[in-house]
Amino acid sequence: MQPREFAAGQEFLVAAKRYWSTTLYRNLRARFDELAASDPSASTIAAEASPPPNLPELAAALEQDVAYRHFAWLERHLQKLKYSGPYGLVPYYEERRQALLQRLDVPPRHAGLSLDPALALPGYYTRVDIHQHPGGVWSDDLAGFVYQAGAQTTTPLLGESHATLHDRFTGLIAQRGDSRHILDLGCGFGKSTHPFANTFRAANIDAIDLSAACLRLAAADASGPPAARIHFRQMDAGRLGFAEASFDLVTSTMLLHEIPPPPLRQVLEESFRVLQPGGRAVHLDFYHMPDVFQRLLHYGHARRNNEPYMQPLAELDLPAMLRAIGFVDILIEPFREADDATDDAWRFPWTVISARKPAV
Ligand SMILES: C[S@@+](CC[C@H](N)C(=O)[O-])C[C@H]1O[C@@H](n2cnc3c(N)ncnc32)[C@H](O)[C@@H]1O
Q1: How far is the CA of 146 from the centre of ligand 1 (A)?
Q2: Where are the alpha helices (DSSP H) in 39-111?
Q3: To which H or E segment does residue 330 belong?
Q4: How many other C-beta atoms can be found within 10 angstroms of the C-beta atom of residue 175?
Q5: Is the dihedral of CA 136, 139, 142, 145 positive or negative?
Q6: Which of 47, 154, 155, 286 is least buried, going by the fewest C-beta atoms within 10 A?
Q7: Model pTM score
């Protein structure tokens, strides 16, 4: 496939997704408001109860509607085409396999890299083709490239400024204090890690992920002096190979919703263990959804994007879990991913989840 054909195909998909996230989203919102107005139980939605008790009935009413079906069908199939269609990412990178593998084979010059070929990958991770990415982000050596390209069009309204989401998150953490020993859980191909190295100028950063393919790309792509303070390691966030009290900040970006509740508790317990007394845990994920319509679309998105642990996270009492582990100062805050982020278009329910290990 020629690069021009590929680019045209992908641009078409992005344009279609933009239409989906604005025009179709607004039509559907209007339809939902009509349904809610004509349903006496819907009009008494208790927004403060999360999730509201009548959510299943509302979901059933909405999901029968033709506007919803159109919206849902397009969401599912645009994502499928992005990866697997004639102009999809997987066939495109497949044709370039040898050249890409050579890029990964060069020992990284800037950041550190430690892989663990014997690491047992959890079943919840390997049995799902997450994001509809064939084989997930881990099973093929090229999976990091495919995921990196796919991530650029996850939020088409943000376009190029998708990168600023990570900078904004890191900036928020920096405003609240300095950190010297940072652990980035589920770092992927390094997009969440680099802003930490750039912002916390005196920090050493360990960045871990299950996917060797993503970590190899993260290390190969790392450049510039800040990258010298990053070490990428293949590790399970639920079984960290670090000593107690190794870090003053444990963070993650879009990791929590990829883990079902029991192993998630293990991840949070491990974070608590490796934090120094007084250290902070700060996660960016999808959690705070007081708007019922947004919640219904989020649950539907989870199904259509092969994200089976998204809804369980949204329904989990995360503050209670953090408290039971021993965390204090627990804060759940909505997060605006861009200056021009608008609720008049489809967007993720971005949320900052922060907590502190008590100082002794
Ligand atoms: C949605 S991606 C986010 C990547 C990166 N943080 C970013 O913001 O671009 C989630 C990442 O978490 C990783 N992951 C999932 N479960 C994990 C676990 N138990 N331990 C470590 N990494 C995990 C996946 O391999 C994937 O790279």
Answers
A1: 14
A2: 40-43, 55-63, 66-84, 89-94, 97-105
A3: strand 328-334
A4: 7
A5: positive
A6: 47
A7: 0.95
At 276 the three-state DSSP class reads: strand
Residue 84 burial by Cβ neighbours in a 10 Å radius (0-12, 13-18, 19+):
middle
Nearest residue (CA) to ligand 1, atom 1: 254
Helix, strand, or coil here: 15? helix
CB of 307 shorter than 6 A to ligand 1: no
Average pLDDT estimate for 93-98: 96
Q: Give me the phi and psi of 311, to 5 degrees please.
A: -65, -45
Residue 188 Cα, ligand 1 centroid: separation in angstroms?
A: 5
Q: To which H or E segment does residue 337 belong? A: none
Question: How confident is the model over 50-76, as pLDDT tens digits?
Answer: 666 677 888 888 899 999 999 999 999
List residues bridging with 331 in a β-sheet: 354
Sheet harboring 204-209: ordered strands across?
A: 112-114, 230-234, 204-209, 181-185, 247-253, 275-286, 350-356, 328-334
CA gap 54, 72 in Å, rounded: 21
What confidence score (pLDDT) does residue 46 get? 45
